[in-house]
Records
---
Amino acid sequence: MAENRSEVLAGAAVLAAAIGFLVYAGQVAGLSRDSGSYPLKASFRSVEGITVGTDVRLAGVKIGTVTDLALNPQTYFADATISVRNGIEIPSDSAILISSEGLLGGNFVELVPGGALDVLGAGDEIEDTQGAVSLITLLMKFVGSGSDDAAEPSGGK
């Protein structure tokens, strides 16, 4: 009898942990219903390093998430849709860019507010965008410029 009770309790604990994990995973993946937000759109040259569910931050504080990424077949740019929490008004001349948390960190979407008095409404597009910067490309430019300097003759002799 005691064995059955302990097995039932252990099973209930495992089931509760599994349900908690599924709820957490759904929230992280952006599957939770968040009616307290509004969508904004932006078009990037490259969205390398971000996916649906990536954080949208303003001054380092998470204010939303990326909700959709799609290739625009006319412009060959990546169209992104983000959701921003209600109550946060974004000036119409704001910029949106893909930033990195560091060399080994992940990427996130950063909003840089402008100074306009007009604010963006639901479904508006942020015009000023900056796509992802490839670390490999930057390193290749740095290494390439260093070798060009070394190959130049030192004038004077």
---
Amino acid sequence: MRYTGPKAKINRRLNAQVYESSGAVRSLERRPYPPGMFTRRGKQSTYALGLAEKQKIKHYYGLSEKQLRRYFERATRMKGNTGELMLLLCERRLDNVIRRAGLAHSRPQARQGIVHCHFKLNGVKLNKPSALVRPGDVITVRERKNLHNMYRDVTETERVEPAGWFNAEPEHLRVIVSGYPMPADVSLPIEVGLVVEFMSR
């Protein structure tokens, strides 16, 4: 199941800003220690470190355990570094691209918009946040005045996260995918080798 509980607690538990809502960010800044009474960060085992890094990926990209396992298994069948390839698959998710292109304040908001068919992929309505984009794909907001007004408000306050593999055109409420992401494009700082070791057990 995808996590739907308090996001501030997850940021504090993982000591990372995996959720971007203002409350969750402020909570980590004010209290940079795990939730609960008399808790502090001691020396962690390799297992605990691997689990924490895996949880960062799940919460950051909004994945269920089953989805992450599917990406991991797909990456193991590809040539190259398994951990990097797994993250690159996550980066290609439609909800992640919409967020990074500045058309949503957060990935949960991007997912909600996709599920409610606010966006089109290559001119076709799509309600699948996990769809993987490819070079040549074009993402647009549906031609409805209320949606255009809503997403223009978002683009006025949200910055585009630069990426070399897609071109964000917020003035046109459009994103054009020009290539595939590279390891340097991954937006989540993480020790992915620990995740691979953990998931290979």
---
Amino acid sequence: MEIRSEHVFLSASLTARSATSALLLAGALAAPQLATAQDADDSAKPAPVQVIAPEVEPRSIREADIDAEFFEVGAFAGMMTIDNFSSEPLVGVSAAFHATEDFFLQFNYGFTEAGLTSFEELSGADVRLLTDDDREYSYYDFLVGYNIFPGEVFFSDSLTFNSAFYLVGGVGNTEFGGESNFTTTLGTGFRVVLLDWLTVHVDFRDHMFKSDLIRESQLTHNIELSSGFTLFF
């Protein structure tokens, strides 16, 4: 009876040892696979992104804007080349109404005095085609303007002015040589807004009308180049 009990005990002990050995062997075989899977999971994760914050300091720009008002008045001066006569100084005044951001209406009045024609200069002091009063040249016109190229002018890194290149066209009247002539005017201009109430502009105009002073029904081109200041209110 004692021998049988020992045999049973030995059999149970061997079975337990076999089971333990099998578990250890299975764990040893599974360990490399688990490590490989862990490495695969780690490699599948995206690498952390390093964010570099740029050291850029914002630049402050002083920009002159047009005032909220729609009217402007001003004065201008320049040169007027009168067809068949000489080029003489010109002065005038202007007023404008800005109907929209792109379109504006403008009124201009200019005054100059014509010099001698080439014929008068060659003929001497005794020949004069016009009296002194008839040499006074004045005009007024009503023009429609369009800001074709609005933009900005940079005077420095911190100072910027609004600007616009514009086209104008319209009709008016010219008093010259004792005649009153219906006039068509076409031109261009460039405006820079110095302050929200002050602008400076440069204008080129062609005043066209028919005249009988030199020859019968001659279409004359009278070129104006001027510059001036206007105030918004």
